[in-house]
Amino acid sequence: MINFFKKPKEKIFDLKNLSTDMLLYRVFPKLAMEIMRKYFRVQIEGLENIPKRGAAIIAPNHSGYSGFDALLLAHILHRDFKRIPRVLTHHFWFLTKTTAIPAQKLGFTEATFENGVNALARNNLIVIFPEGENGNFKPTTEMYQLQEFKRGFVRMAVSTSAPIVPTLIIGAEETHINLSQFKFTKYLRGTVLPLPLNIIPLPVKWRIKFLPPIYLPYEKSSVHDRDLMKEVTEDIHERMQDALSDEIQKRKSVFF
Asked: What b/e string do you get for 162-190 counting C-beta neighbours within 10 Å, with b at 16 or more?
């Protein structure tokens, strides 16, 4: 059996005998992510904060309308930590078979409470962006200003006793410039779309930092306490915003 997750310097042979699905959804994405990792010169910190086994929720800030942050984060977790995360993504990916089938084969799961709990119950690592689309589609003028967090990730943590690993992604905001956003109120109520300036990503240096895990000491029944869930969510939001602001102040250059 061919191992498609070898170290980057090792060559993959016999490509002509691979299936189309294997090429499209394993080999090419892995190659593309390695090119992106080197293009952005990604630095990783805090891998020791991710549990080596068992369920855990990776909760990053969302930025850069392209979604590169989700793809690259999942790749790095697999490459450097040897765990395959389940990435919970926007429901738009799953509206038609044309987009749903590729999304599923790339490891994406629709971002619902039930899907998150089911993945955690199987001791999986999941990635969920608490800001949702409001995070990566916000205008660049608001970069590194965390948008309001949805409470689903906290409810998932309480329901499964899984730790939350707050994660900072620095650099994606400047990779793609977003001039503004469109909010639909009539036909697609609640839908947010970006108004991008550039399609080709700028060669910004990225840094991904995993903060210490947060273990929530609440009974599973607490998931129904809306005030408590809101309070915990706001506390995590504040912690992440403070940490993100500190890291931005320390950064000396965007491109070097």
From this structure: bbbbbbbbbbbbbbbbbeebeeeeeeeee
